[in-house]
Amino acid sequence: MINRRRYLQAFAGVPLVAAGVSGCLANETSQAVQRALTAQQLGEAWSYTEGGSPTALENGTITANYRSANPYIRTVRLRLWPCEGETLDALGGDCSLGNLPDQMRANQSVMTADRALGETTFLWWTETTTDIEVVISDHVFRLTHTPSSETNTDTTQEVPSTDARIGEITDIAQRQADKLSNSSTD
Question: What is the pTM of this model?
């Protein structure tokens, strides 16, 4: 049974409200990519994949790819983009979950958490790939957690349960949400 309570409680203390977006991302690329978690902020075992350090695209989207081999090999991909709405009530398109929850629940090959936390967080998974999308602090971000099919010769641990993987991506999402909340008040 999926630990939905842990998933829903993880964001209980974070103000998941998107406010006005003027100046949502700074014009300077270096300032923009600072909104993404660093590999070190994920933990000692984490690093960037080759070419995966945070990068700002022309449209304002920030991408990063992280990798860890301990206790099992996995990657996490971050996509973070600025909201384009003015208030939470006015959010739409790129700044809300939109029809994503309904679309994912309609797909028979996708499992979803029973409900999102309000209208700002949604979690879904297929086999071993787990995604979470969050609207917070004038941004939307999506994390994709994927265990690798590579074998780790240093450990014999198998890919953990769905609950464990959901717990890990929820924890990473909480850290990213905290970083965005803190950077919006700086």
Answer: 0.74
As a whole number of angstroms, the distance between CA 48 and CA 141 comes to 18
> Do 141 and 32 form a contact (C-beta atoms < 8 A)?
no
Q: Is the peptide bond preceding residue 71 cis, with omega within 30 degrees of 0?
A: yes
Measured CA to CA, the distance from residue 14 to residue 84 in angstroms comes to 21
Count the Cβ atoms, other than its own, within 10 Å of residue 12: 8
CA gyration radius for the chain? 16
pLDDT per position as a tens digit, 138-165: 788 999 999 987 655 555 568 889 889 9
For the stretch 40-93, pLDDT in tens is 999 999 999 988 899 999 888 999 999 998 888 999 999 998 876 544 444 444
Residue 156 CA to residue 44 CA, distance in Å, equals: 20
* Residue 24: both structure tokens together: 């949502």
